[in-house]
Amino acid sequence: MVLADLGSRVAVALRKMAQAPLVDKDVLNEMLTEICKALLQADVNVAQVKHLRESIKKNVDVESLASGMNKRKMLEQAVCNELCSMLDPGKEPYAPKKKQANVIMFVGLQGAGKTTTCTKYAYMHKRKGFKCALVCADTFRAGAFDQLKQNATKAKIPFYGSYTETDPAQIAAEGTAKFREEGYEIIIVDTSGRHMQEAALFEEMQQVSDAVAPDEVIFVMDSSIGQAAHEQASAFKKKVAVGSVIITKLDGHAKGGGALSAVAATGAPITHIGTGEHVEDFEDFEVKSFVSRMLGKGNIAGLAPE
Amino acid sequence: MSKLVGGGPVTAEAMAPVLKALLDRLVEKNVAQEVGAKVIDAVGASLVGASLPTFGSLASTVKAAMAEAFGRVLTSPREAADLLHDVSTARGGKRPYVVVFVGVNGVGKSTSLSKVAYYIKSNGFVPLLCACDTFRSGAVEQLRVHAQALDVPLFQKGYGNDAAQIAADGIAHAQAMGATRRLAMGYDAVLVDTAGRMQDNEPLMRALAKLVHVNSPDLVLFVGEALAGNDAVTGFNASLAQYAGGKAPRLIDGVILTKFDTINDKVGAALNLVYTTGKPVVFVGVGQTYEDIRNLNVEHVVRALTG
Ligand SMILES: Nc1nc2c(ncn2[C@@H]2O[C@H](COP(=O)(O)OP(=O)(O)OP(=O)(O)O)[C@@H](O)[C@H]2O)c(=O)[nH]1
Ligand SMILES: Nc1nc2c(ncn2[C@@H]2O[C@H](COP(=O)(O)OP(=O)(O)OP(=O)(O)O)[C@@H](O)[C@H]2O)c(=O)[nH]1
Ligand SMILES: [Mg+2]
Ligand SMILES: [Mg+2]
């Protein structure tokens, strides 16, 4: 699993600390150094790693802590808490409501997995009893409409798009209006990939957003992204109202750390993860269980905060 | 750190904090921690005992040595493939030059392939696009759009079929076209698109290895994103070697580094890829139009890394 390397290295650092005859400042520092190195190697944002280190140092006063087991437990807990808070912006994600139209717009960098994830998201919600539809507002990428169409057809989800219209805002507006009228509950708008360096593309994203007035904007991020994650995610957030994040391709060998920066950058929670190319390769995301799974549940059970 | 310490010999102790700070900077630039540490350690070791120039700071000396080391890494792969020359040679031998594009999902394989087609065509050759991503929805149509826009031929057999066989058929088709037409009118290159896959997905890596080993392409290009923090390339090479099917393993010959326009100065992926493969960056993708393809500007990368 992704972040498994990171998890086991953090677990090793914790165990090493637990084995030290006396846990003092030096032992704490050594543990933090190990953990921070592991985080950096997993592509976690440099500033976030610094923050984690300082925060633990500030919150845990090793010298004054009671000795023995408790001290170690407290330190383990502190590390776990920091990892959780790195992943948890403390905000509830948007929950689509039945018997009304929920327009959900997908945005993200080129090739992140938006189009694939749109269908996965629709498919998951369809199985939960929502009436779902897809709108292809990507008029740029070659074959974009065929891709969405073929995915939607396989998953038996209605779709809307055009081979000739070149204005994505226009198609998005038409598609959402049509599906609203027909009483669809979740209307998903797929958009082209874009990046912060190209202002015209960001402008276009805003136009699509203005045209459909989405109830939710989902930022899709590839788990293999490295140190550029933070600035890209922040830039998207500045332009449109990103409300939640989906991390894709977690079935790969990605170190995953860069994508985690998306949380800090957008202040939006991760709601789902993509774990493969097929429509059912999609899971709900829950911070605490993810972190305890990452740290290898077996080794340090019950570590995740209650 | 930057105070003048001119004159005396450099000690490992004096250098340690300088090296540490530089490594942090490199990681921020998306250099893989392990790669950065190795290069920096080597630089550090090479400087111990050297005497500083009278008016230089330790930091600037280390930095200069580091820039030199990066330059060496990036330019060390020999035979940076000269694509046009090789296509032309193949044409002389009356056979098409075959390039296979491989990589993980969504990195820009198909787009890069169409950029290379444009480049080849602009130089007077005829490339045939060969649609061997028979899995991802819309993959065939995507190539068809490119073929039409570029006015180049497309070879495709739809979805669900054996990719290795389609590549073989595409190459045979190009060969036949070369034989039937006047030479200059034949297909000079076959550009084989493949489905994205994760390097630890065994069945998919097996299928890719088969495609490569059955067809013995002239060039296997690994397409990797400048955005990526990790690099899957090691896993691709390992799989190509492991599933060679008894033949001499055919590994990656070069790299296309895509989405270079999305990373500002975080250029570390260039170093990571070259360092781990020892293969050249053949092209850099700098945007989403056909013209957005460049050679790697080593000086630019070194400047960004040390700046
Ligand atoms: N292995 C794996 N592949 C995925 C996952 N999600 C998406 N992909 C693949 O990633 C590639 C890119 O996905 P797309 O959905 O086309 O990405 P996109 O963001 O719509 O791309 P653009 O529209 O070009 O910006 C495709 O090959 C998908 O099959 C995942 O969770 N795991
Ligand atoms: N900004 C930028 N975008 C790029 C570049 N190269 C490719 N892209 C975009 O990245 C996205 C994915 O490109 P594709 O060529 O479909 O990627 P792929 O590797 O073939 O994807 P799969 O076949 O699904 O694995 C598209 O939106 C491209 O326009 C580049 O150099 N810069
Ligand atoms: Mg798309
Ligand atoms: Mg492709």
Which terms would index this structure?
heterodimer; A: 306 residues; alpha/beta; eight-stranded mixed sheet; 11 helices; 48% helix; elongated; disordered C terminus; B: 307 residues; Rossmann fold; 2 domains; binds guanosine-5'-triphosphate; binds magnesium ion
Question: Could you explain how this protein is built, in words?
Answer:
The complex is a heterodimer of chains A (306) and B (307). Chain A has 306 residues and is an alpha/beta fold. Chain A is 48% helix and 14% strand. Chain A has eleven helices and eight strands. An eight-stranded mixed sheet of chain A has the order 3-2-4-1-5-6-7-8, sandwiched between helices. With 307 residues, chain B is of the alpha/beta class. Chain B has two domains: 9-76; 83-297, Rossmann fold (3-Layer(aba) Sandwich), CATH 3.40.50. In chain B, 48% of the residues lie in helices and 13% in strands. Chain B is built from eleven helices and eight strands. Chain B has helices spanning 12-28, 33-47, 58-75, 83-92, 109-122, 139-150, 163-180, 202-215, 233-242, 268-277, 298-306; strands at residues 97-102, 127-132, 154-156, 189-194, 219-225, 254-258, 281-285, 293-294. Chain B has an eight-stranded mixed sheet, sandwiched between helices. Chain B is elongated. The two termini of chain B are 16 Å apart. The chains are: A alpha/beta (306), B alpha/beta (307). At the A-B interface, helix 2, helix 6 and helix 9 of A face helix 1 and helix 6 of B. The structure holds guanosine-5'-triphosphate (GTP) (2 copies) and magnesium ion (2 copies). One guanosine-5'-triphosphate sits between chains A (108, 110-116, 138, 141, 144, 192-193, 248-249, 251-252, 274-277, 281) and B (105-106, 136, 196, 198). One guanosine-5'-triphosphate (GTP) sits between chains A (108, 110-116, 138, 141, 144, 192-193, 248-249, 251-252, 274-277, 281) and B (105-106, 136, 196, 198).
